[in-house]
Structures are given as C-alpha cells and as structure tokens.
Amino acid sequence: MSTIAHSLRDYREPTRTQAVIHSFGLPSTEEPQDDIPAVLSLSNPVPANAGAAEAVDSAEQEDQVYAGRLILTNAFLCFSSLDRRSCRLTLPLYCVRRVERLNAQRTGVFALAVVVWHGMKVIIQLNALRPQCETFCAQLRDNLRAQLGSMKTLKSFVAGCYSEVALQELASEKGKEKTAAVEDAGNTEEKAGEGAEAVTPTPPPPYHAGLGARFKFPGDPRKLREKSKMKLWRDYLRIHGRNLTLVRYPQFLRLVQVGLPNRLRGEIWELTSGSIYMRFAHQGEYEALLKSNEGKTSTSTEEIEKDLNRSLPEYAGYQDPQGIETLRRVLTAYSWKNPELGYCQAMNIVVAAILIYTSEEQCFWLLDMLCDRLLPGYYTQSMSGTILDQKVFEHLVQRSLPMIHDHFVQTDIQLSVASLPWFLSLYINSMPMVFAFRIVDCFMAMGPKVLFQVGLAILKINGEELLSGRITDDGAFINMIKNYFRTLGDSAHPESKNPRHRQITNFQELLVVAFREFGVVTDETIASERRRFRQEIVEEIELFAKRSAVRNLKDLGRFSKEQAGLIYDQMVEAIYRTRHAPAIASDESGKATTPTTTQDYKEMRIDLPTFRYFLAEVATWARDEFVISNGFQERIERKIPDSRTNNNDDIIPRLFQRWDREKRGSLSLQDIVTGLDEIMFARDDVLASIEWFFKLHSNGRDSLTKDEVLRLSESLLFMFRNENSDGHLGAVSQLISASFQNS
C-alpha cells in the first residue's frame, strides 16, 4: 500500500481563509486582505444604433442589483450576494482597465465604477464608514499596480477562449464571414450524431477546443438544441461579461441546468471550478512539465499505458492514435506534477471525458482542481474520499428515503455497488454520455452536492420498483438501474394527453426531482456529514492498509503477524511525525529533504530521516529522554538526536544502508522486518550479536581497519551516551587498545 495513512491523518478542516479562497475558486496563493459590505450592479453602455431588444436588456440589467460582501485578495476582487447564490463575481485585477469614483460630491455615498478590459462596467457601492472605504480603495490601488505585469499576457490568453469567438460572430456580419471556417471546424457536430461509422478528423480551431471539435461531440445537435443554447449564451455573455470577467447572475445557473453548448462547455467548466485562474497564473507550465520529464517512466506511467485503450473506447476520438496520445500526455503530466498521487483508478475515464470539450492544458488544470478541491481523496490509492462520501450517501438515503434504506438492509443489498461508480466517474461510466455531461455541468457550477442530489433522485424515482419485491439482491438492483439509465431519453409520461407532458424526458424529470425535492442537501449538509464519518473511515482504511501490508510480506522471519503489525504501526507513526517535523527531517548535510519524483509512492517506504524516528520508537539508545516538570506534574519527553549537532551517530546511517539491500535509498516494510529479525532474535547468542555488530562497521568483511575500529567505538559511545555510570568508557577504551595492539 502507498503512504495513505499519514495523508488521511494530515487532513485538517479548511480555515476560514481557505474556505473563502475555495468558495471563489481562487489559487491557493491568494489571501483575503480586506472585505466590506457592498452593493453590485452592471452598467453596459447601449450603442446608439442598438435595437429594441438591446434596450430592453439594458433596462433589465439595471434592476439586477444585489447586496453582499466585497472581498479583496492579492490579485482578485470577489463579490458574493447575501444569500451566496444569487450573484457571484470573481474578477482578476489584471482584467481591470480603470477604476472610477462615482458621486464624489455626494456625502454618505461611496461608489466605484470598475471597467474591465472589454468595456463592461461593474458598479460597486461600498456600504461602510468613509475611513474604511478609503482604506479599502487604497489597498485596491496598490494591488492593481502589482498586477501590471500580468496584464501584458491577458490579450493572448483570452484570445484562446471560445467566448471571444462567439461574441465576435455576434458583433458584425463581416465577423461572421471571416470566422465561417472556424464555425465549420468547431460545429461539425451539426452534421452528424454520435453513431457515425466513419469520422474524418478536422483541423483544430484557433481557440482552446477539445477532441469534439475534431471527432464530433456526443449526441445529436438538433435534439440537444445547440443553436438555441448558443444564442442564449451569447446574449448572456454580451451583458454579463465573459471568460475571466463573467458575473454569475441567477440566469447563469438556469442556463447551466438546461445544458451547456458543446463548444462553450470546457470554458464554463474551468471558469466555475476556478481552474482558469490557475491556468493563467501558470502559463506554459504544462508543456514545460512534459518536456522536462520526456522519456522518463514510473509505476504511474506503466499503469497509464494499461488503461489508455480502456478509456471511453466507444468514442471516436479514442479509436484514433491522436486521441490516445492526447489522453496519455495529460495523465502523464499530472502524474509528474503530483507524484504522491500519481495515477489512480477512474482517473482515465474522467480525463477522457473532459478532453472531449477541453484542450490538453485546460484539462490538466481542471484535473488538478478536481483532485485537490472538488473531490479530494477520490482519485487516490485508498479512495478515501469516495469511501467517505459513500458513507455520507448511505446516511442521506436512510434519512431521506427510510423505506428504501430499510429494504436494502432487509435484503442485504449493498448500495455502494451501484453508487460508488456513479460518484467516482461523475456518472460518465453509468449514463449515456449526453446525459452524464449535463450532470457534470451542474457539478462544476454547484459543487459535489449535485452528485448526492442526483443519486437520491435516482433511488426515489425507482422507489416503486425497488419496493415491489422483485429486487432482492445486488445483481437485480444493478440491472434495474442500468435499464433506467437506458431510458433517460424516453418520455417520462408517454400516456399523458397533454403534449407538453409527453415531451418531458426521464432525464428532465430526474433533474427536477434532484434539485427541487433534494435541494435541502446543501454544501453545509455534506460538510457536516463528512466530519461526522471521517474518523471512522480513516480507521477502517488504515486497518485495511495494515492487513494488506502484512499479508503481502514475502517473509515474516521469526515474527508473528501481530508483531509485524506492530512494526507497521511504528512505520506509520514515524512517517506522520516526520511530516510534521521538517526541521528534524533533514539529510546528513543539514538540508531539509523533500520527496523526489523517482520515489515509488505506490509502496510505503521510509527514508533516512523517517528511519531515525522509527528507531527512536523501538530502541532506547536511538532517542534522548527529558523530564519536563511544571511544578505540579512531571512527564517524560522523547526526542531524536539531531544529526547536525551529534557526530557520533554514524551507526544509524550504517544500519539504514545495511537494511537497504536493493540500494533504493528507502526502506520498505519487508526490509525493516528482515533487518529487525536479524537483530532481535540473536539476543541469546552474544557471539552472534558481536559478529553482526562488527560486520556492520566492516561492510561485511571479516576484519576491521583502524578507522573502522574508531567508528565502531564512536557507535558504542553513542549507544551508551545516556548511561548514568562511566563504566562503558573504560570498556570502549580497552577495546580500542586491544584492537590496535593486535592489528
């Protein structure tokens, strides 16, 4: 097993600052500097030749005024309405062209007009005392100046966003003619659906686009109403900003729930998740990562190769070498960026799906955000996040659908056999892709609660059949769910006399039930339930990891399985303590050590600094003990000797090197069990112990040089340094004298 135990133990609830950063999808380097009550509205000038429709839009936007809080960070200006749902804005300061003070002559009114690079004006009225407003504006001015360097790369960055192309098409007829070739390249899905037998790849468009632009998008574009969706989104983007400057009004969420247009889907995904800000801040890093690790291999890259041809093989893009190579590059790059996580189960399915709508670089940063924030612990060897959420989901079923839960208990049906793949693949591997991507749209915009809401809705809609008496085992349950997913495109009310009711599909009904009946399942609900079950899940996973590690030992030596389990516990504890003591976890030169990309994270191994902690727990000579007293009580505190100030602890590195038989620079559980077996079961044989100790310093030879005798004596002095008497000093002195006389 990998080093999963300490990663689970290391989990800490997000601080208030981190919660703010995560809620707006900001990079982890950001820190809130000031926040203030405010009122936000938009003001887009209407051209003189504007039609009646645009004039109406202008009148409507004046009414869209929301009160909330304005938060200033290093590089962002963020706004959230009081209900935290109606209006949200995450505005990078490098997108701001100028800031104007409004109503400067009026007392009691402190308003700002923030003009972004494409001309949209955001009106912000600060509702605080004048000194507080002045302080906020001064900080904003300083932060804007600090972003001047980033403003230089903005133009080239937004040129790759499809929203820019869409609005250029809307701007003039000439623009439409010039971009006709781009439209044809990106809109080939209008000509054929998913079932085409032969697909001829088209040249890539000039904006960031996924494999769908070359190999067609899943589904029939006419049934998906691509043109009408795109028209609605163009209207929204024209008024409410685009890409980096988009303001999320209530209409935004409604448009997402209806389904995103194929060509715009990738951009909205990275915008709502926050990965677009990471991509801007790390431009060129993806290609540099691939280039610097070109030709290298690892356990992760080997596993990636095995799964490439099993990643959505039904999609035309992954029947082509170009699509497979694209998938390989993204998965490989992420395994190098995050070597401790590397590559894990189901990651290939999710990445393959995302690549249909995003470019490689977009997908790379979206995957990073997915693993780090949206679904932490899902794509790890332990799958701790998935297992935890399965526990949460089962509890929500028990609370919301008690009759169905009781039926599962009575028939011994394991809910997780169906629900775990739903969560792990974001429903992509369970539903037809056109419907699964609609759920992913909502997931990116609304967060992980969507997975729970949809899961509960699936069970509720199929509740009658579940309780009919025909579903009595796991197999019948899975078949019932599969049959339901196959009918998601069918009418939910085929026998209704009302033609509008007959047009409602099973999938539309699923979303209505999910968001209306289970809207009570909020982000706070999920967070609370996760806190409730986290410790229980951690203990279960650690116990499973321990049993697996002991079971996989090739040679227990003379230890029992219980004793090997105790050794495993000490290894885990040493890893955990080392991670939280970076000042001590240093190499022999005194420099702090950090994991290297050559380390195999799929197996739990410990390096030399961690080995010092391990020895300190199992051997009294490898630690120092101090009595700490506060006047009322005393306690003994253990501390490992600092290798930077103690020059006589050569025995610990020697022991480490002797046990590292494969010369990998780290020790596995098997290495430690074998090494301890060699020492601990030789206690009754004094001569054997002496022989082992001498060979430890002679590198296996039958004799010692004078230098090796001195090092051996230093090791003895180190081991007996805490003895109360001085008897060992004379013994060591006699050993040196006798050795030199006989040499």
UniProtKB/TrEMBL annotation:
GO molecular function list: GTPase activator activity; small GTPase binding
Keyword ATP-binding tagged: no
Keywords: GTPase activation
Region Disordered, residue ranges: 177-205
Pfam families, A to Z: GRAM, RabGAP-TBC
Domain Rab-GAP TBC: 259-447
The UniProt record lists the keyword Chaperone: no
Cross-referenced SMART domains: GRAM, TBC
Annotated transmembrane regions: none
PANTHER family from the UniProt entry: RAB GTPASE-ACTIVATING PROTEIN 1-LIKE, TBC1 DOMAIN FAMILY MEMBER 2B
Protein name per UniProt: TBC-domain-containing protein
Organism: Acaromyces ingoldii
